[in-house]
Amino acid sequence: MRYLTVLLCLLLAGCALAKPLPVEPVGESLVGGGPMTRYYFYDLGQVSGSFSGNFVMIGGRGYTTVNDWLRFGGGGVSSMLAIGGPDDESIDQSMRIVGAILEPYFTISDELTISLPILLGGGGYEFEKILDEQGNGNYQVELYQSGFLCVDPFLDIAWKLSPDFHIGLSGGYTFFFHSEERLTSSGYLGLRVFFGI
Prior knowledge:
Layout: H1 2-17, E1 31-40, E2 54-67, E3 70-83, E4 91-107, E5 112-115, E6 118-135, E7 138-162, E8 165-177, E9 186-196
Antiparallel strand pairs: 1-2, 1-9, 2-3, 3-4, 4-5, 4-6, 5-7, 6-7, 7-8, 8-9
């Protein structure tokens, strides 16, 4: 929690010190956003032998451009499916993440941009398996669930197809902070599409 507080203060300080863009910046959208996906490397079988697979998350990001090297916004993802997961209707496994994003970016060429975003936020997960139906709508279940705080730094490489449209690849690592240590920190790869205004 102490580390999250320090990072949040750095985020706010960076935004406060950043010089605002002129009203019509050249070649860069003031605001934008779009969908993104992530594939997490964490094997869900480590939660319990009842679960398996790797999460594929889907969500979106939005931003406003602060100056010619910094964007600020937010985003989130939620589990869509688990590749290699159990084909069993009695099992439910899910996760969601949401937070604020500070994104320093560097223009390498007219078409290529590299950025180093960091997401500060939180979310939750739930892993549930119905073990036995006891009647009257009551069930015996195996259940692991928890909320968490997270720090999520990543590297993003974007190809600008036009001033207001680009696609990108990303890779990062999500650090989870919670009391129920069933889900540990994990790396991921991702894909995103951004539209600017």
